Amino acid sequence: MAAKCHNPISPPTTDAAMSKDPTLADLRKSYEHGTLDDDEAAAVPLNQFAAWLKEALDKGLPEPNAMTVATVGPDGRPSTRIVLIKGYDARGIVWYTNYTSRKGRELEAHPFAALQFHWVELERVVRIEGRVEKVSAEESDAYFASRPLSHRVGAWASPQSEPITGRGVLVARAAEYGLRFGLNPPRPPHWGGFRLVPDYWEFWQGRSSRLHDRIAYRLQPDGSWHKARLAP
Questions:
Q1: Domain count, the chain
Q2: Contact 89, 162 (CB under 8 A)
Q3: Which of 66, 172, 192, 222 has the highest CB neighbour count under 10 A?
Q4: Does the predicted TM-score (pTM) go above 0.85?
């Protein structure tokens, strides 16, 4: 009798089967850390952000300065990436990058973006939306000069977002620019800061029973902020 042939390839997983995966479908957390009451939220969103960021820094959270930046391409498709906030004030939120990168090109064409901070340990999220502009050359120069030497060389070495054949390309380019500029590499013309000028802020505080706190601020024509609670 001929032996039965067993197909070593498993059949595709169905949606129903995927929904029963206990490692995902049943993964839950009860948010119990804090609250965000209407009367406790600052009248000005920048002040609320400053207070929450300070707490994240004071508690030593891992990379409390990390934020997601969302942009939109010419085809209408959104894209996100993690960058590091390098400054903020009444003018907006600042980060630095390669202007010829994907996000740089998309912001050049569509100068609006959304930011998100997620401080997991504090069960908090901050969302910020607004138009984006380049910071002044003087600001970019000052920040670039403050960076470690290897980071300054790296800004020259990496053709950010462009395909390369391997890591060796980056190593070789870093060595090339390191020899060319020595201890004083200038700021590349394609590298500098962006500033998001907010017109919308949202603060999310996890609460029990999924009845989370959400406080939103929307900029008004007279420059004031309208504060409202949103359903979770």
A1: 1
A2: no
A3: 192
A4: yes
**Per-residue model confidence as pLDDT tens digits over 13-31:** 555 555 566 688 878 777 8
Q: How far is CA 53 from the centre of its chain?
A: 14
Tokens of 60: 């030593």
Asked if residue 212 lies in contact with residue 206, where contact means CB atoms within 8 angstroms, the answer is yes
pLDDT band at 232 (very low <50, low <70, confident <90, very high): very high
The candidate with the shortest Cα–Cα distance to 196, out of 125, 121, 54, 94, is: 94
Catalytic residue among 147, 210, 214, 218: 210
Beta partners for residue 115, in sequence order: 69, 128
Q: Look at residue 69 and tell me if it is in a domain.
A: yes
81 catalytic, yes or no?
Answer: no
* 52: in domain: yes
Would residue 77 count as lying in a domain?
yes
Domain range for 74 = 34-149+189-229
Q: How far apart are CA 202 and CA 137, in angstroms?
A: 30
The verdict on residue 104 lying in a domain is yes
